[in-house]
Amino acid sequence: MGKRVYYSNIAHIYDQTRWLPEPIAEDVADFILTLVNATPETTFLEPGVGTGLNVLPFVKRGYSVTGIDVSPEMLNQFRQKLDQIPPNLKLILGDASQLPFPDRSFDVVLTVHMLHAFSNLGLFLDEIDRVLKPNGFYLNAQWITPPARLEFEQHLQTILAKYQEPQPSRQPPRIINEINVEEYLSLKGYQCNYLIAKEWKVRNQIQELLSFYRLRAYGLCWLVPEEAFWQAMDEFELFCHDHYGSLEVDLSSQAKFEIWAYTAS
Hints:
One of its GO terms (biological process) is methylation. By secondary structure, this protein is of the alpha/beta class. The chain is built from nine helices and seven strands; from the N terminus they run H-H-E-H-E-H-E-E-H-E-H-H-E-H-H-E. The longest helix has 19 residues, at 226-244.
């Protein structure tokens, strides 16, 4: 299943099945605004903006925000969070790998869990460099899966693998996507700082996580055919009873919002 269809199918459940609640997003926004020395004129771009989880706090505070995404359903979820689209928000339906903006358009470009999606990462980084203003910031970020939740997912992956159909080999390999982002941008004159914007505790009951996976809310759930998926989930639920002792057990551990901040030297 292509990423466009995948995200369109889960747009209505995307926020509830992730682990970045609104108060945490507000704290991350505070961190970013301080990091980039934001003024009322600072402009933000998020390619792959999705439901707006990461940039909604900037919109509400009056900053100029542009988001681009390939999924109309994800963008509609973003719009539904607002009574009306304010003049400081521009949402564009399109391919985030081809940024339809003039050179030097934005003070800050933010990507979150995005870089793995590009078959030609170098070209995308070139585009970011092109649309950034002088002395602008490129923030490459991700929210790290809480360890307990990651372990839960790894148990499921083991079971799903037994039901997954063999995939034909695909050629050619995506060699260009193996570039080192920091090295690539350093050649363009950027310096990198690694920062943790926020740490917070995530707590889910086993039965809640099972319901998320039964909704097929994550990419790994599309790796097996429909009938096999439900067989795998039944097996996984039995595993959870045996392994955790109860479906009412809480899984609790720390999540992190990490940022690699690139600035022109």
